[in-house]
Design goal:
two-stranded antiparallel ribbon, Glycerol-3-phosphate (1)-acyltransferase, about 220 residues, 7 helices, seven-stranded mixed beta sheet, 9 strands, single chain, alpha/beta
Length: about 220
């Protein structure tokens, strides 16, 4: 489905050239994957988001499926801030390159900074983005420390951060054993956190606050 959806998106974008084309194909891609595995999504949104406003969505990262999960859980259009290595993956890399998404090269501080500035320009021009600040998958509920790139990006763009919590995706897919099972994955889209008045010196406190906001949602009661 990645091959089909990526090819379909690139062809559609060359013909139509509209921002909504990326979201449309991303949703098709995500739904087809979850339908094939037998996974459904239960999502809670703690506050209605204004999709005419740009956001930086900050999400914890348990398994590979977190990427299509976000596509279905977040109702506002967004692009991805992706590792530079994904650009080399056939079909997927080309699709991301044609999309509003941005590649970040973490191996080179200069290139990483330039990528953040480009992503900031995208956001100021009306494109929300999602980033997984742990930097790698945890394969469990426990979260890893955050890297500061997502927060520098939000400060650079001057837009709110929205915490997104994936609660139990690791229970339906065991990547290490290559086993998947049908089930329900729970996702919480949190309330926007304004960055007005926040400076770079306050970055560690901001990172800790967002980390805690995501962790708190693991105790949220579901009906």
């Amino acid at each position: 489905m990645t091959v089909i959806s990526a090819t379909g998106y690139v062809i559609s974008q060359l013909i139509v050239r509209r921002r909504g084309v990326f979201r449309w194909w991303t949703i098709i891609w995500a739904r087809s994957i979850f339908t094939g595995i037998g996974i459904s999504i239960a999502c809670k949104q703690l506050r209605e988001l204004d999709c005419d406003t740009s956001y930086v969505f900050v999400c914890n990262h348990q398994i590979l499926l977190d990427i299509p999960l976000a596509a279905l859980a977040i109702k506002c259009p967004f692009a991805f801030v992706s590792k530079a290595g994904l650009a080399r993956i056939p079909f997927l890399g080309q699709a991301i390159r044609y999309s509003p998404s941005v590649f970040v090269d973490r191996s080179n501080p200069r290139r990483s900074f330039d990528s953040i500035k480009r992503a900031g320009n995208h956001i100021r021009n009306g494109t929300s983005v999602i980033i997984y600040p742990e930097g790698k998958r945890s394969y469990e509920r426990a979260m890893q420390p955050f890297m500061k790139g997502a927060f520098l990006l939000a400060l650079e763009a001057g837009v709110p951060i929205v915490p997104v919590t994936i609660l139990d995706a690791y229970q339906v897919l065991n990547e290490r054993k290559h086993l998947a099972r049908p089930g329900v994955v729970h996702v919480v889209v949190g309330q926007p956190i304004s960055l007005q008045g926040i400076t770079r010196s306050e970055l560690p406190a901001l990172m800790e606050k967002v980390h805690l906001e995501i962790e708190l949602q693991f105790d949220l009661k579901w009906d």
